[in-house]
Amino acid sequence: MQTNQIELLNKALEKPGFLSAVEAEWLLYNCPTDSLVSAAGAIRDTKRLGAITYSRKVFINIINLCRDTCSYCTYKQEPGDPLLSMLNPDQALAIAEAGRDKKCTEALLVTGERPEQKYPEAKKWLHSLGFESTVEYLADISEKILQKTGLFPHTNAGSMTKKEMTQLQKTNVSMGVMLESSSERLVEKGMAHEGAPSKNPKVRIKTLQSAGELRIPMTTGILVGIGENESEMVDSLFTIKNLHQKYGHIQEVILQNFEPKPDTAMKDFPSTPKEYFLRVVALARLVMPDMNIQVPPNLNPGIFARYLDAGINDWGGISPVTIDHVNPEFPWPTIESVKGVTQSKSKTLRARLPIYPEFIKGGFISSGLQEHTHLFVDESGLVREDYINGF
User: Which CATH number fits domain 3-55+173-388: 3.90.79.10, 1.20.58.220, 3.20.20.70, 3.30.479.30?
Assistant: First the structure.
């Protein structure tokens, strides 16, 4: 390696978190992959001691109409489509109850972006249930799920206002919104987010800022390989890092590799190169040494073990009950297979709640929600082994 590569990696190891954006970009361009991966793994083993985690969940696809049109998305449906989902409370509760029976602890509530603003069908459906907006319905169903099943709601409904998040904060231990990219270039004509005004990074950053002001534990992340360049990728990582430094509320960062899907505008766009994605994962650990960093295993079948080497400490949500409705083409591996892969890297797999232990203890949720977590977790803040193994 060149002298400057060694110096920067030593800086990352000796002063974790002190790399500048310029230095990080230089490493992404120039540092050998093996060296990046090795450094990232070493930092993870220093800064994120303990088990590799996952969240045992059910994916509740409330409504998949969406005002946005992303060039790579198969989640969004249109009225009349066979995969259209518009779940009433009984249907949503039935999924949560099935999850409870399989010892899940997370109810992931997902919707399209403000569907009532584009589709009269969505507005009529909400009115039939007694609600004016998707968020009003999410607040109501979150309370029902928490009270009737004990599962912890975690909502991902796209960009939200502070008022909307306040409605959900009473029952959601955490929420999520993907930044995807900090590049405004991607909303230009012909780019991935041209038809998705809510994916403008200013909108997403505003949601994350509002969540920080409300002290809501947030999941966010980056979609790698949708047309960004290396400089924009590094800027996206530092955008998340800077938000967390200001508010302390980013509980995890998801790194997701783009894969083209049939019947989308980007169906002929190339998959994210595997080595490039591995380098981004490793760089994320160097930039954010203390962060919970996740790579979804279902998007990397057969090769997801390599991301343990590159410094991740979480596999995200895995469901023994429901499919991944955002990526139905990529089934989740079994929890047992993920456990085997984790153990093959001399790591232990543990289940967590949709809120990480440090956020349970950090005063980020109400006393009532905190008391509820105590029914499920041990002294480490992770889900009790006897709870998982008791069925």
Answer: 3.20.20.70
